[in-house]
Specification:
The protein is mainly α. The chain is built from 14 helices and two strands, in the order H-H-H-H-H-H-H-H-E-E-H-H-H-H-H-H. It has a domain of 43 residues. Helices cover 60% and strands 1% of the residues.
């Protein structure tokens, strides 16, 4: 028994002091630093108790939307482990090997790289995979606001009336799986290209931390789903989307609808005309308005989108929920309006 306990303690210690622990530490540091910076820019009294209340606002943490968020986050972890992650990885690999086979058919098997890719190749591979994932995220996110079936699933994310960090994972499992399949279709061919010419390179790690985890820390994915209005300043904001830009994306103000779709890079929003720069310190109300009240329980976050999609597709005898707003009409945007805009107009 003593040996078992010692082994467990050793395993936990290695996890905390290894790359996983470093990543968790950087995440916590980004949250604390963000809170302190925003606090000292505010008009609140500069006392330790005021700082603590600001970092842990009970009106937000005890909100019914936050409670639904926490419970949904816990249950969704199991779904992610069993379904979403394996699906995404499988599609990427399948598309990668299909692209590899297509290149082999065109160039022949002789067109291949070294068994030991150079540092430059690894850097280029990492950068191109990050760019492919970023444009993939932007395109799918844009479609989520335009195609009614996708919008019904995406409403789960936008229904949060307060944002508490874990809101970043307030995503319906079906939506998550579809997103990962889409990502695989775009990132897979990029992987296949490098697989053919560089013999299966892997993404770089920094201090042992996976580059995708590091990306999420740099762009403050957790912080941007909180009440902390963090801006990196005009210069850095033109390179990396800051949390304040994404908070605007969740705004209930119609002028903010369908803006700032990007994940890390603002170039896609700028290129396609969907970038909206918030005013310094601008505050937003979050959610879906009156319709959002339907989504404030864990069960509703799983079931409600499916019932609305059934109504949308005319399947079975799915009844409208009491007080529920009708879903947008089936098809792509009508009269130039996205599905979100149609919901608001209705």
């Amino acid at each position: 028994m003593r040996d078992l306990i010692a082994a467990m303690v050793d395993a936990v210690s290695q996890r905390l002091t290894g790359p996983t622990g470093v990543a968790a530490g950087l995440l916590m540091l980004s949250i604390v630093v963000s809170a302190v910076v925003v606090f000292f820019r505010s008009d609140l009294p500069k006392t330790p108790s005021a700082l603590l209340r600001f970092m842990m606002p009970m009106d937000i943490l005890t909100h019914h939307s936050a409670r639904a968020d926490f419970l949904f986050w816990i249950s969704r972890k199991l779904v992610m482990l069993l379904v979403a992650l394996p699906t995404g990885a499988s599609i990427t690999i399948a598309c990668g090997y299909a692209s590899h086979a297509a290149l082999a058919a065109v160039f022949g098997q002789a067109a291949r790289g070294s068994d030991h890719p150079t540092a430059l190749i690894l850097v280029l591979f990492t950068v191109t995979m990050l760019l492919a994932y970023d444009i993939s995220y932007y395109l799918y996110h844009n479609l989520q606001h335009r195609i009614p079936v996708l919008w019904e699933l995406h409403k789960v994310h936008h229904s949060a009336e307060v944002m508490v960090g874990t809101t970043k994972d307030r995503i319906h499992p079906i939506d998550d799986v579809m997103n990962r399949v889409w990502d695989g279709l775009i990132t897979g061919p990029v992987y296949g290209f490098w697989l053919f010419f560089a013999l299966d390179p892997i993404e770089l790690t920094i201090l042992g931390i996976n580059v995708y985890v590091l990306r999420n820390i740099i762009m403050m994915d957790f912080v941007r789903h909180t009440h902390l209005k963090i801006s990196f300043g005009p210069v850095v904001n033109s390179i990396i989307l800051c949390p304040h830009y994404h908070q605007l994306h969740h705004s209930t103000n119609p002028k903010h609808f369908d803006k700032n779709f990007g994940l890390m890079l603002p170039i896609w929003d700028r290129m396609f005309g969907t970038l909206h720069v918030p005013e310094p310190g601008e505050s937003f109300s979050f959610g879906l308005g009156a319709e959002g009240k339907e989504y404030q329980s864990t069960v509703a976050l799983y079931i409600l989108p499916l019932r609305k999609i059934a109504r949308l597709l005319g399947l079975g005898h799915a009844k409208a929920l009491p007080g529920a707003a009708p879903p947008a009409q089936l098809g792509t945007a009508q009269l130039g309006l996205t599905s979100r805009q149609q919901d608001h107009a209705a």
